[in-house]
Every structure is written in C-alpha cells, then in structure tokens.
Write a structure and sequence with these properties.
mainly alpha, 434 Repressor (Amino-terminal Domain)
Length: 92
C-alpha cells in the first residue's frame, strides 16, 4: 500500500495540488491527507480509490500471474519472454 500512496503523492504534486486542496475535494482535512501520504493511518480502500480518480489515476486488480506481463507492457520491455504475448495477426 505504501507504494500506491507514494505514487498518489507524486501525482498530486505533479498536478500542482497541495494537501489542503486534495483534502477539500475528498471531504477530508489536510492533516488526514498528510497522515495518509506518510503512512500514518490506514485509509479505507474507497478513500484511496477516490484519491486516485481525482488525480487521474485508476486502481486495478489483476491476477498475480499476470503481474510480470503487465510490468513488461508498462515498461516497454520485450514480451517474448513473458507469460503473456499479444495475439498474432491482430492489427492494433
């Protein structure tokens, strides 16, 4: 969860939002947003999901066996050695 919260903090900063502005949109005080970002509180999944959406991100659950393939796709690595390969003959 700490990795997700760190990514959301980076996204908040990239959008030029301070914790108070994000807190207003979430209906939370700035101090609570700060605790969430620092890992000082265990936020509800609904709060983390709403934070992500406000910051133009989306939380997605994927089967564990597909994690290497998803990481390869995201990083742009060759998928030849991964568990997942695109269907041949399909036009993108």
């Amino acid at each position: 969860m700490s990795r997700i919260l760190e990514e959301l903090k980076i996204a908040r900063q990239a959008k030029g939002l301070n914790q108070s502005s994000l807190g207003e949109k979430l209906g939370l005080p700035q101090s609570h947003v700060s605790k969430i970002e620092q890992g000082g509180t265990d936020p509800r999944l609904s709060t983390v999901t709403e934070m992500a959406r406000l910051l133009d991100h989306e939380l997605i659950l994927i089967p564990r066996q597909l994690v290497p393939a998803i990481r390869a796709i995201i990083s742009g690595q060759d998928t030849e050695s991964s568990a997942w390969k695109p269907d041949e003959g399909l036009d993108s």
